[in-house]
Automatic annotation (TrEMBL):
This is NAD(P)-dependent alcohol dehydrogenase. It holds the Pfam family ADH_N. InterPro entries: ADH-like_N, Chloroplast_QOR, ER, GroES-like_sf, NAD(P)-bd_dom_sf. SUPFAM superfamilies: GroES-like, NAD(P)-binding Rossmann-fold domains. Gene3D superfamilies: Medium-chain alcohol dehydrogenases, catalytic domain (3.90.180.10), NAD(P)-binding Rossmann-like Domain (3.40.50.720). The lineage of its organism: Bacteria, Pseudomonadati, Bacteroidota, Flavobacteriia, Flavobacteriales. GO terms for molecular function: oxidoreductase activity. Residues 10-315 form the Enoyl reductase (ER) domain. It comes from the Bacteria. PANTHER family: ZINC-TYPE ALCOHOL DEHYDROGENASE-LIKE PROTEIN C16A3.02C.
Length: 317
């Protein structure tokens, strides 16, 4: 099968299209024929080993994982003998978590992984871009226990996590303000933001308004600035936080009434089913900025690495 392989950390040039062995499903696995995936900010970090700590998890001198990609939409091509949940021909979408491997034509997944039937009315590339931002936003919004009428500010609202966070926070009844640049104001309004702050013209931490929850999806501003705009018993979500922010967050949570949420997300099939239902009910829309092919993976990574994508970058296979 065709796959995008990387055997060393580095620039997008390390991503090479190659023929590799097609996987065979174990007894409890399904074999997916992948029709679409996406390039996410996390894969860019892993490819570059940035921050350095990536190497402690994924290989000190070279990556232990050689095919990147965590989201997929496609068709079940074959199943192991014990599989009960899915059948050959099912159209499914989901998230591989740490097993990666969706920059490829085929991938095996445990049947009880983060997989659900694809919503019938959307395309494979639309389904593939949902799980990354969707599971991240859902994980933190559930932990923050966002409720009807709460005021929520989302920073980095035009990215993969941010566009999902706006839609999910709205679904849970919040009054949502998104922070983005001028070019993305219309996008944020189109997915339900009640108010939009253009960060090129206004510093939200200086306007005197406060929020119950601040969801910083891209970590472009220091924590102390967010705290200025957070209610005294508010919740600060730092989904893009690294070790430093996690320690700062622990300290703030211990010494004040503010709750700081960070760390790696967790997800399961129920979460993907929940996102599927939101899509089917019209409460969650896939946002696609650009679409590339497997052969154009270097270009796709180069674009995502710039940090200015609007929603998601899809890959059609
Ligand atoms: N905790 C976890 O387990 C977990 C899971 C998934 C992702 N993450 C992390 O989440 C982070 C971001 O994810 P993502 O995929 O949503 O990123 P992304 O899609 O690359 O986000 C880019 C967006 O951020 C906006 N942006 C840039 N600077 C900004 C600023 N100063 N203020 C407001 N918006 C700004 C850009 O808009 P403009 O160009 O218009 O500025 C662009 O639309 C990554 O660091 C990733 O590692 C963590």
């Amino acid at each position: 099968m065709k796959a995008v392989v990387f055997t060393q950390y580095g620039s997008p040039e390390v991503l090479q299209v190659k023929q590799v062995a097609k996987p065979t499903p174990k007894d409890n696995e399904i074999l997916l024929r992948i029709k679409a995936t996406a390039v996410n900010s996390g894969e860019v970090r892993l490819r570059k080993a940035d921050p350095f700590a990536v190497r402690f998890l994924f290989g000190l001198t070279k990556p232990k994982i050689n095919i990147l990609g965590v989201v997929f939409s496609g068709e079940v091509e074959s199943i192991g003998k014990d599989v009960k949940t899915f059948k050959i021909g099912d159209e499914v979408f989901g998230h591989t978590d740490m097993s990666f491997g969706t920059y490829a034509e085929y991938k095996c997944m445990r049947e009880n992984g983060s997989i659900a039937l694809k919503p019938a009315h959307i395309s494979h590339k639309e389904a593939a871009v949902i799980p990354f931002g969707g599971t991240t936003a859902l994980h933190f919004i559930k932990k923050a226990n966002i409720k009807q009428g709460q005021k929520v500010l989302i920073v980095g609202a035009s990215g993969a996590v941010g566009t999902a966070a706006i839609q999910l926070a709205k679904y849970f009844g919040a009054v949502v303000t998104g922070v983005c640049s001028t070019a993305n104001i219309a996008l944020l309004k189109s997915i339900g933001a009640d108010e939009v702050i253009d960060y090129t013209k206004e510093d939200f931490s200086e306007n005197g308004k406060t929020y119950d929850v601040i969801f910083d999806a891209v970590k472009t501003i220091p924590i102390f600035r967010s705290l200025k705009s957070l209610n005294k018993k508010g919740t600060l979500i730092l989904s893009a936080g690294m070790a430093k922010e996690m320690f700062q967050g622990l300290w703030i949570s211990k010494t004040t009434n503010i709750k700081v949420l960070s760390g790696l997300i967790k997800h399961n099939a129920e979460d993907i089913l929940f996102l599927k239902q939101l899509i089917e009910d019209g409460n969650l829309k896939p946002i696609i900025d650009r679409t590339y092919t497997l052969e154009q993976m270097k270009e796709a990574h180069t674009y995502v690495e710039k940090g200015h994508k609007k929603g998601n970058v899809a890959i059609e296979i």
